[in-house]
Every structure is written in C-alpha cells, then in structure tokens.
Amino acid sequence: MNMSDNELTDDYDLQTRAVRSGIHRSQFNEHSEALYLTSSFVFDNAAQAAARFSNVEPGNIYSRFTNPTVTGLQERLAALEGAPACVATASGMSAILAMAMSLLKSGDHVACSSGVFGTTVQLFGNILAKFGVVTTFVDGSDPSEWEKAMRPETRLLFIETPSNPVTEVFDIAALAAIAKRHGAQLAVDNCFCSPALQKPLALGADIVIHSATKFLDGQGRVMGGAVLGTREIGEAVTGFLRTAGPTLSAFNAWVIMKGLETLSIRMDAQSKSALEIAQCLERHPGVERVLYPGLESHPQHALAMRQQRSGGAIVSFEVKGGREAAWRVIDSTRLISITANLGDTKTTITHPSTTTHGRIGEEARARAGIRDGLLRVAVGLESVRDITGDLERGLCR
Ligand SMILES: *Cc1c(COP(=O)(O)O)cnc(C)c1O
C-alpha cells in the first residue's frame, strides 16, 4: 500500500520531497495538489467553532490564519530547506518585515550587510528605524568587520549570499558563530541559491528568508515569500501574520508549490548555462570584470564552492564605458527581457545602479560596489548560444 504523501520522511532525497511533500488531499482523493480557494472554513456547529477558535480542536478557520494549500507549500519548502518551521508570506519583503516585527523590539540593534537588495536597505534603514530598531550597515563579508559592528543590544545579523547584485559570498558558519557569541540570530536571504544549491540552516544560520517570487516560482508568475527556522520562530512569525495580514494567497501558494517540483532541475540547468556565459564574458574585450561565484577568478570562489552546490544562475558583469556602455548592451538585446525580476526560465537583464539600487543613493551604491557599468543577468533556460549572442551584440569590441 502507498504511504500518505504527508508521511514522507527525511530519508527521501531532496528531489523526491520537492515533488511529493505537503500534499493535503480533499475527500475526492485528487492526485495533483488541491487548490483551496476559500476565505473561510465552515464548522459543524457552534461548539466546534468555539473549539477551533480557542485552539482546543486543530483545524482551519480563516485563510488569514491558515489555508491547506498554503500549509502544503510551507511543508514542502520546509522539507527542502531542512527547517522545522516555514511560514509563507505575500512577498519576499513581507517575509523580512514579518521576521523583523516578530523577533525585534524598539531599542534592538541589527547588523545588516550593505550589499543586500535595495528595498531591504530601505526597510531596515528607513521603516524599522521609525520604530526604534537601529541598523548598522556592514561593508563586505570579512567576519572581523561584523565582529566590530556587534553591540550589547544586537539581536539580528542579516545577509544575502551571494549578494544582489555583486555576488559577494559570506561565510555563513563564521557569521553564525559571531551571532551566537553575542546572543543574536543570523538571518540569510537565500534568494540567489534557493535550497537546491545552499542550505543556510545546516551551516548554522537561525533563519532563512525567501522571495518565492524568484527561483521558487521560477516562471515569473506570482509574488510570494517565506520565513524558515525553528518552531519558536515559526510561531512568532505566524502570530504576527495572523494579526497584521500579509499572508500568502492560496492561489499563489499553489503556483509556487508546483514551481518547487522543478526547482532543483531548473537551478542545475540554469547554473550550468550561467557558468558557460560567465566564462564567455570573461574572455570578451568589452568586459571589465565578471562577478560570478562559479568562476575561479571570483575572490571567494573556494568559499562559494564549499557552501553552494554550484555558482548559481546570476551573472553580474561590468562593461568598459560606464552607464552609456551598459545601457547599450541592454538596448541591443532582442531576446533577453529588460525587467527587474530574476529567477525566471526566461533570461532577464537589469542595470542595478539606475533601477533596483537607484534609490539607495550614490554613496550607498559605492559602498556596495555597484558601479555604473554593472549589469546583472539572471540566466534562464534558453540556449547558451542564443543568450551570449544577445549579450555580445551590444558589447564594444
Ligand atoms: C526580490 C528580492 C527580495 C524581495 O522579494 P519580493 O518578493 O520582491 O518582495 C528580497 N531579497 C532578494 C535577494 C531579492 O532578490
């Protein structure tokens, strides 16, 4: 007899769990994951309603609290990251917000990498600052710089590795040890690698953040996010979401859940192409430098290869000639999408200094190493020949 898909244990491989964990079948015993499009759930009688609300009887009440499709996605993603708990959110930013609101209070201090996603810089630097959470932005990945940033009231260290867009690699185990020594927690935005390539919790991190909008969906269809960590962290974040409301819709959860089935296969294929494209760009006379952790020329190549299964699917590179030359490459493409998103099966190209990182200001950009000639390419599933041909058209010879 088949076991229930919910009974899948850790003995099963990642790819098996990506396809089979978190399935909650309805009374019809459908084979594919069910999409429970409903805002609320009905009770048999008044007593059952009371029992559900007072937590005496487990079960769904209202989709701002729980929804079986969202629960299924949370279970599947938790299995992939090796996390005791996963809480899905409406977007990647609401995942970071929910984590911060659940774990921090006024007077707490955060050490955040200055090289994180531009909106994350604004969330910590402008929004959370209004509520008395103080953030220091730390330059670079050198653990001694992070050690210096620690204060008695430091509660959270926040990094992205590889970082967006300059692909700086952070030593997760080293920073986790610093956090631990100072009574703080380490949160890793695992957007660029996804659990298919990197498992921050296994390396000592306390929290993993995802923008599910990127590689987890992987086909550019929906927004979503997730916070992963201990059961305690999961409960704190769930408590915030139930009250504040940025929960994930059942429909988006269903789309992302199906995206997870092909995550590992997509990541492997897109990373393989990314390496070939990075090697090709590195040889090109119009290119100043290529920032890709899978290249031996990357300053943290050895660390990246210890932490990650591959270099990933994002290739950043600096062209000779600054902004004008960078824009020429973008405007000469015929195939690659000019868009801010990444992690799609369709290759995308972005000029970070005038788009995603435009609002953080010149000084912050300089600190993060985002120069005007920098371009970020998120490699998709088109052929390598067609992608490189599209990029080379606008490059100076
Ligand atoms: C896109 C992105 C986010 C924000 O996610 P949304 O789903 O757009 O809210 C956070 N971190 C990184 C690294 C990202 O690329």
What small molecules does the structure contain?
Answer: pyridoxal-5'-phosphate
Rg estimate, integer Å? 21 Å
Tell me the strand order in the biggest sheet.
1-7-6-5-4-2-3
Share of helical residues? 25-40%
Would you kindly provide a brief summary of this structure?
Helices cover 38% and strands 15% of the residues. It is an alpha/beta fold and 397 residues long. The chain has 2 domains: 12-260, Type I PLP-dependent aspartate aminotransferase-like (Major domain) (Aspartate Aminotransferase, domain 2); 263-395, Alpha-Beta Complex (Aspartate Aminotransferase, domain 1).
What does this structure look like?
With 397 residues, the protein is an alpha/beta fold. It folds into 2 domains: 12-260, 3-Layer(aba) Sandwich (Aspartate Aminotransferase, domain 2), CATH 3.40.640.10; 263-395, Aspartate Aminotransferase, domain 1 (Alpha-Beta Complex), CATH 3.90.1150. It is built from 15 helices and 12 strands. The strands form 2 sheets. The chain has a 7-stranded mixed beta sheet, sandwiched between helices. It has a 5-stranded mixed beta sheet with strand order 8-9-12-11-10. The longest helix has 20 residues, at 263-282. The structure holds pyridoxal-5'-phosphate. Pyridoxal-5'-phosphate binds next to helix 4.
